[in-house]
Amino acid sequence: MPRLGDPVQNFWNLVNDAILCDVAVERQVEITGPDAARLTQMLTPRNLSKLAVGQCKYVLITHAEGGILYDPILLRLGENHYWFSLADSDILLWAKGVAVHAGLDVTIHEPDVSPLVERAWL
Q1: CA distances from 4 to 37, 87, 117 (A)
Q2: CATH architecture of 26-113
Q3: I need a surface site. Which of 13, 36, 51, 57 has the fewest CB within 10 A?
Q4: Is the model's pLDDT at 114 over the cut of 60?
């Protein structure tokens, strides 16, 4: 079993093996509803048209002028169900504002969950 305390060793464990990361402090922004895919695509310049249910992608969330607001992991949980995984930010409020401005039929909230992630380079 790889050691977990030393940051340098953690790096090499990630590169050569796998590590288990407790990311329970990360928050999720959940987007659901008939326009969830449309809103999610509006929030990021990354093409999400081929994002399959159960798939994750690293994305950038940008503002109207193209500046980066955050760089979360996006998980597609269902046809109209997405999670952005964030350490801390006001993306929940940003997404709600974009949705209201665009007149989209979505529900946006922060679910009460504690993710646990295994990260491995294959």
Answers
A1: 38, 20, 14
A2: 2-Layer Sandwich (3.30)
A3: 57
A4: yes
